[in-house]
Design goal:
Length: 223
């Protein structure tokens, strides 16, 4: 199975840290945030990784190279301007192939193992969902007792920024910038989105304060 890491964003919420350093390269516990992803993918046996880049793309490519240092092979999907989540995946489809792949938002940290999720079967997506953090108390979706995900309903959980995705979810969409969430909601309406409630560690590394908190937590764990 291949994986795709989304790393093309501008990192505006992380300014001023991202004024001169792209968000994926911000250090966490002694190494760039994106390297934590690469090492977890390699540990799960995922060796082929696609990374989309736009803002400060050359900095990211120079830092990671072909990925061999981290136990993977990286293919780069370049975007002249960020294409949002859906558009970034659509642009990268020639590199991803036709089989389901593991999608990772570059600005999260999570200890879920990609190989812990069951195969998609007839579904178009299987989302990793977590308990709602303080900064997002209303959540995103409802996970029912049978493991199906719905746009509405209670209780609600937060999308963790990690998922198994069938390329068919975006394949029919025109190239260009578009969000993934509306396509997911359409697939939910068709009963083709499953969910996995992850109860382990997860951080949305979206602000300098949360980056600093994750850094402290990981250093304490390793120490």
């Amino acid at each position: 199975m291949r994986a795709m890491i989304l790393a093309a964003g501008l990192g505006t919420r992380m300014r001023p840290l991202t004024d001169h350093c792209p968000k994926p390269l911000l250090p966490v516990a002694g190494k760039p945030l994106i390297v934590h992803h690469l090492e977890r993918l390699a540990a799960a046996g995922i060796r082929e990784v696609v990374i989309n880049v736009s803002y400060r793309a050359e900095q990211i490519i120079e830092a990671l190279g072909d990925g061999r240092e981290f136990g993977v092979t990286i293919a780069w999907s370049r975007e002249e301007a960020p294409l949002e989540t859906g558009g970034g995946i659509r642009r990268a489809l020639p590199l991803l192939g036709e089989a389901p792949f593991w999608l990772v938002n570059g600005d999260v940290w999570c200890d879920v193992a990609p190989d812990a999720l069951p195969p998609l079967g007839d579904d178009l997506a299987r989302l990793v969902l977590v308990d709602n953090p303080d900064h997002h108390p209303t959540g995103d979706f409802h996970l029912d007792a049978t493991g199906r995900v719905h746009p509405e309903g209670e209780p609600r959980l937060t999308y963790a920024g990690l998922a198994l995705i069938d390329p068919a979810l975006v394949a029919d969409h025109d190239d260009g910038a578009f969000a993934l969430a509306p396509l997911l909601r359409e697939a939910m309406a068709d009963g083709r989105v499953a969910g996995h409630h992850h109860r382990g560690a997860w951080v949305d590394v979206g602000t300098p304060a949360r980056l600093e908190g994750l850094d402290r937590a990981l250093r304490a764990r390793s120490g």
